[in-house]
């Protein structure tokens, strides 16, 4: 067993949001799939990942998340790729993402 004693509570966190729209095809992500993947044929363009660093010590009460990358087209590796060059309408699913304290 591993026991950890936490002496300090972290005050900075990274908040991430993933958003996707199934069947959102473009020239790079077609109904025929990508590299023979039938999952990609259903999904269309990969999900976009938005993120922001939240500082609990800051006076700031509102944070705008920005695009930090995309998931893989079929979810095979769980990684976030910063390259969003081949995404088109997927970038337009939301216009802004705001995280605020109520």
Task: From the structure above, extract its key features.
single chain; 102 residues; mainly beta; 4-stranded antiparallel beta sheet; 1 helix; 4 strands; elongated
Q: Quickly count the domains.
A: 1
The backbone outline, from C-alpha atoms, is elongated
Mean pLDDT: 85
Cα-to-Cα separation, first versus last residue? 39 Å
Adjacency order of strands in the biggest sheet: 1-2-3-4
Low-confidence stretches: none
Largest sheet: 4 strands, antiparallel
Order of helices and strands: EHEEE
Structural class: mainly beta
Strand-residue proportion: 25-35%
Tell me the total number of β-strands: 4
Number of helices: 1
Q: Radius of gyration in whole Å, from Cα?
A: 17 Å
Helix content: under 10%
Question: Brief overview, please?
Answer:
The protein has 102 residues and is mainly beta. Helices cover 6% and strands 28% of the residues. The longest helix is centred in the middle third of the chain and has 6 residues.
Write up what this structure looks like.
With 102 residues, the chain is mainly β. It has one domain. Helices cover 6% and strands 28% of the residues. It is built from 1 helix and 4 strands, in the order βαβββ. It has a 4-stranded antiparallel beta sheet with strand order 1-2-3-4, with no helix packed on it. Strand 2 and strand 3 form a beta hairpin. The longest helix is centred in the middle third of the chain and has 6 residues. The termini are far apart. The relative contact order is 0.26. The model has no long low-confidence stretch (mean pLDDT 85).
């Amino acid at each position: 067993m591993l026991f950890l004693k936490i002496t300090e509570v972290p005050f900075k966190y990274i908040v991430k949001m993933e958003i996707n729209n199934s069947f959102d095809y473009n020239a790079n992500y077609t109904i025929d799939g990508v590299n023979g993947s039938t999952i990609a044929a259903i999904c269309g363009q990969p999900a976009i990942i938005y993120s922001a660093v939240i500082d609990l010590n800051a006076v700031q009460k509102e944070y705008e998340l920005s695009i930090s990358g995309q998931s893989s087209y079929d979810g095979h590796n769980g990684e976030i790729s910063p390259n969003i060059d081949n995404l088109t309408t997927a970038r337009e699913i939301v216009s802004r993402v705001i995280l605020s304290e109520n």
